Amino acid sequence: MSTAPLMPKATAVWLVENTALTFDQIAEFCKLHPLEVKGIADGEVAAGIKGQDPVISNQLTREEIARGERDSHHRLRLAEPKVKIAVAKVKKGPRYTPVSRRQDRPNAILWLVKNHPELKDAQIMRLVGTTKTTIAAIRDRTHWNTAQLTPADPVMLGLCTQIDLDFEVARASKDRPPEAESATLLPAEITTGPAADRSQRQDDPFASLGNKPRQTEDEDELDVANVFAKLKGIKQKED
Fold first, then answer.
1. Residue 60: pLDDT above 70?
2. What is the DSSP letter of 147?
3. Residue 219 CB contacts under 8 Å (≥ 6 apart), including other chains
4. Which pLDDT does position 110 carry in this prediction?
5. Residues contacting residue 172 through CB under 8 Å, at least 6 positions apart
6. What is the DSSP string of 194-224?
7. How far out from the chain centre does Cα 164 lie?
8. pLDDT in tens, 22-48
9. What is the pTM of this model?
10. Is 53 helix (H, G, I), strand (E, B) or coil?
11. How far apart are CA 205 and CA 26, in angstroms?
12. pLDDT of residue 96
């Protein structure tokens, strides 16, 4: 409910001419400045305005005026309306785009299609204020001016705000199914560690063929000594 009467200056003119209320009381009731009410009383302000009786329009009662005349500190209050008028709901229509910026809409649509493919047609329509046919033509590259289109950020063009764009992108990302995790390379500590060598040997059936234990230098010297000892023994038997 509004706290100011209808036609406040006309109401102030009537109250100045027909009541003994103070300038402050009239100014507070009509939402005017006290000097403005004083100018009305002096004839300097609202000279051609006809006074409007707030009692006839059921905005003020005689009792309220009499109470204010008796007490200069009393604040006048608007009378409650006898009939309550329902407030009409404003239907949300398509976003209005100024005529000077309508030629930039195809560029903005192309930018949204390339950078945010998760956005639905309805979301692009809300952001830019276009039609579904235009969006389909730009996506299929069948638009009459496809060769001349260049992607342009709709926020920089002034077609929508950054808050609206972020809201629509976040809303579209929630509806998008989760993507499968892509395979990534393992760290070097895992692939080159001892655990990786053991697992590699277990998985490779031919790993054991080329990994025979090598003889040390001491073992080689012992084998040579044994061979020469056997040869000497054979020679001694022949002699």
1. yes
2. G
3. none
4. 93
5. 116, 118, 119, 120, 123
6. HHHHHHHHHH-TTTTTS-PPPPPHHHHHHHH
7. 5
8. 999 999 999 899 999 999 988 888 878
9. 0.40
10. coil
11. 102
12. 67
